[in-house]
Request: fold
Amino acid sequence: MNDRSEAVITSTIAFTLNGESVVSHSPPIARLADVLRDEFRLTGTKIGCNAGDCGACTVLLDGHQVCSCCIALGQTASRTVVTVEGLGRAGALSALQRAFHRHMGAQCGICTPGMLMAAADLLARCPRPVEMEIQDALAGVLCRCTGYRKIVEAVRDVANDLALPQSPALGTALGARALKVDGVAKLTGAEQFGADAIPADALWLSVVRSPHAHAAFTLGDLAALHAAHPGLVRVLTARDVPSNGFGIYPAIKDQPVLADGVVHFRGEAVVALVGQRAAIEAIRDDEVPICYEPRTPLSTLEQALAADAPRVLPDRPGNVLIEGRVRKGDPAPVFVQCAAVAVGRFETAFVEHAYIEPEAGWAVRNNKRLQLHVTTQTPYMDRDEMAVVMKLEPTQIRIVPTACGGGFGGKLDMSVQPLIGLAAWLLDRPVACVYTRPESMMATTKRHPARIDVRFGADANGRLQAVESFATFNTGAYASWGPTVANRVPVHASGPYAVPHVHSWGKAILTHNMPAGAFRGFGVPQAAIAHEAMLDELAQMLELDRLEIRRRNAINVGDATATGQVLHASCGLTACLDAMAPHWNRLLNEVAAFNATATILRRGVGIGCMWYGIGNTAMSNPSEMRVGISRTGRLTLYNGCADIGQGTNTTMLQVCADAVGLPMAAFDYVTGDTDRTLDAGKSSASRQAFVSGNASARAGHDLRRHLLALAGAGDAAMLSLDGATLVVADVGRTTRIDLSQLEPINVEGDVHSGYGRFDPPTTPLDAQGQGVPYATYAFAAQIAVVEVDVELGTTKVLQVIAAHDVGRALNPQQVEGQIHGGIAQGLGMALMEEYIPGQTDNLHDYLIPTIGDVPPIEVILIEDREPLGPGGAKGVGEPALIPTPPAILSAIRHATGVRIEQVPVTPPRLRALLRACSA
Ligand code: FES
Ligand code: FES
Reply:
């Protein structure tokens, strides 16, 4: 029990909790969610917002779902409460949990307890619900990962109560629909996220943040604050930070841990309060003596680029953080020879990641080492960043990732890490911090708003001849991933098409906003909106079918990209389009028939294509893996990939098991702990399947070589385990090796281990942006069907068909889940998501798709195998989202005739466009 629940005891409340009679000593006004988590240590109930918006805290109260963050403890007196921990019986999963497991209804798992409880409420009333009933019952629980489709499938399937499938047989793991190896923990509430395992003796840290987008400030005397709050142990300021700058790039450490006299965005950290939890939570911001002198902020691109604009950061003239450029051929003179030239300017908004788990973690000092348990996408980068901030050696820092409740790029940047690390180091006490939802939204990175000017020219057959694309990104106050976006977008700006003449650039512009960073696509989704609108425009000008014009231009093996890279294999866009063609023609006919009699409701069919370079742009980004076998005959994959819900805990095992030649069920795994795993790089840029997958395979092959050598066996020998005995069956002889008799070779207790490393072959881009920025590319085409209410301006997506060339699906069930989730996020970006600093810092003003917004999705997997990939795999995380917004916009245009140049297409925006169109 922590100090908060030990606060004043005012009464006792008796109720039934998961079938047991319990008595709570917390105040009757305490939130039930807090009581469950803090007093009863039932941390399966999650807190995503504390405001009734996300549903992560859903439990059953007398059998009915409630948000436990909105229920006072006193309301539970003499009633029954059931949490996710009460769903199964005697350690066995319930039928509902098994159905979720079978269908992979959990990705990161942070929403899963809430989903399960909402579904349990429904199923008790309605054992065989139809989709509409499921949507109604689960509408209050948000999921940012799954796109909800697997959850609907799971709930519909509960009544069938099927057994769980067996673990894949020997040699069949890669490519199998293997269950998530961490699935049971996510389904029972046992999984521990950043806020779930905070030590009872931890001090708490909260951050006082700037209410101004730009201001100078001074700190007053803190004595009165300490006197008023005896539980306040320390106030950390910029002067306490050994090296007060962090950032993604080794040479750009421009973001202070704590602001030093000037703040550059609303929500920037000014001071950190550390102390007893109750004391810290009682301190109001206006009690802290900070005197601000507000200055005029540069909020927009126009303001930041004005000739007389002051500099956001002193070393960035013109407020240009960086510019990336690609030039192939010479487009300008080619346009005059084109049969059709389309032009446009497209604008996008800040988009919030809205992972359901806010940033959280705790740190502890162990003599000369600092250990952080945090939710993160990038353990080794956190380690190295912490070493810079603390002026320690990287080996003095240990990052132990907790389960990560969604990231999507937003947990690549440090958040709580430097603050809790610094406090724990200085105070030599465990220190914890859990961001509130508004804090998470105001202080962390967003998708870059973009302004993209494009010109696409084609010949009379619709073949692209020339492309220009000039993209300006609002990158906020600090660099974060701005350089990555500015460099990746010019490479992708002409789309997945063969174009002889291309000129594109991307600029990241500093403004007084929270930093824009990495978000599923690094600017490519914004660019795809522009290039796909141009393809539609050219199709209309040349009276070509929209799918056909894409097919004519699709890049294929032997073609050169805009950077001059000739593609040698795994170029599946044409196959995606061919797979789409029958659906396309059918849907066009269906929509035409509907519109023939419709008036207010108009339907449309749209298409969007994409390509995406796997891994970092034009730079080394290796992964390393290690696998060991112990004296007991168990294998352990020491897996440095942060599993943020995408499933690398499972897929890396699948790859490694087949490489070793032993069944997946013989393996355990360690995830991300920097003391126990090697550096597998970041879980970003859709790189883990390809890069870390290769490293896993190589580690497995290496261990296999060692084991075969033990028996003097040849490559084709079969391995098996009989308890602690390794059995090696070679042609004509079988060797039995008693592993328990071998000496451990490392602290983990392994008696043999294998090592693998893979770094994708790329080359730096030259001054014209020419080179090989990526070793391989993913391709996709998606079709969206929409229904637009032309009076209200509302758009409902009715169906999505998604064809993705993933090279090889390491786990088709997981790939489908990634595609569903990406489509849901793309739908949000197209239709509803716009983060406005100071106005949408919560999940009731900032809308993300709910279960009722995501339509049926048909996934078509194209497996055009990549020779360099593990089993042929490439990646799918970001590609899943990129084609969705352009497909939806294309469909709206088809339905209404309106070309959309700004997202999100909210009802007021669409109404205005429709009025202008009909005027
Ligand atoms: S935490 Fe209760 S609804 Fe979000
Ligand atoms: S699985 Fe639902 S939020 Fe991650």
